[in-house]
Each structure stands twice: as C-alpha cells, then as structure tokens.
Amino acid sequence: MSKSPASSKAEQARSAAVQHYLGTPSDLPREGVENISAALRALLADVFALYLKTKNFHWHMSGRHFRDLHLMLDDQSAELLAMTDPLAERARRIGGLTLHSIGEVSRLQRIKDNDAVYVDAPDMIAELCEDNKQLVAAMRQVHGLTDEVGDCATTSLLENWIDESEKRTWFLFEVTRTTFGSNS
C-alpha cells in the first residue's frame, strides 16, 4: 500500500523538523545514518532486554552454586548496562535518533523476556547463553552495515562489544558443562 502525497509530505516535514532540532552534522550519507541509527535502536532494545533478564535471573538465582552464579550474572549485567549509553550516544553522535521509552524497547527488542515465577538455574544459564549468542549475531549484522557505510567508529565499538558478548557466552557455556573437557 503506497502512502498518500499528504502523508508523505507530513513525514518529510517531520523529518526536517527533527533534523533541524536534533541532527548532528556528519559526513556519513543521510540514508546510512538513518539505517545505522535504526539498527542501533533495535540493538539497544536487545541490550536493555538482555540486561533486565540477566538481572532477573541474578535476583532469582537459587541452588547449589548460588554464590558463583549470582556474582557472575551481576558482572554480566553490569557489562550490558555499560553498553547502553555509548550505544545510544553513538546514534546521536552521527545525527540519528535513539530510544525514547520502555514502550519503544518492547516494540523493537528481539531478545525474548522471561516472566516465569521460577526458572531452574541450569535453564537460566542456558537461556542467557542463547540470548548472548543472538546478541552477537545481531551485532555482526549491524557491523556489516556500519562497515558498508564507512562508519568506522561504530564498527570499532561493535567489535569490542562482540568480543565482550562472546566472553559472556563462553562463561555461560562453561557453566553448563557437566564433565571436564567435554563439549557435549
């Protein structure tokens, strides 16, 4: 379904107003800025969703390895939270927009929430391991976009966050192993 000329003009006027008030000058192409900032908004929504899920599991951890898992998830949630401001500010720095609300997070997030009253510790760890792998895959997609547009600063940030996320995945995977030296 195509947009009416009036709706298209209204969108152009809104975009011009936003650009006037919030547009940061950039040598990146406008379409690239819009695509990158949209990708960063979705990525930021995923990071917030994974942060809250990690804190949820940290708060509700129980069982035999409580202390170690509780502390590990606290460290991992802190890493995720530390990504949020640089992610949002990167979108703004290139002249794009970032998240505005929890509602926008819920509309954009691809990491699924877990609202269960109780989750066994092994299931928590396995779920977070998969979620971190999903986050890495999403970051690699954004990396491809930023590299294509020539946004080397965002590309560089993503490379560090990919490395941190792979480390979280590794730690979570190692916790799930039931025997020493077995990858099954």
Automatic annotation (TrEMBL):
Pfam families: Ferritin (PF00210). Transmembrane segments: none annotated. One of its GO terms (molecular function) is oxidoreductase activity, acting on metal ions. It comes from the Bacteria. Gene3D superfamilies: 1.20.1260.10. This is DNA starvation/stationary phase protection protein. Belongs to the Dps family. Residues 38-174 form the Ferritin/DPS domain. CDD domains: DPS. Coiled coil: none annotated.
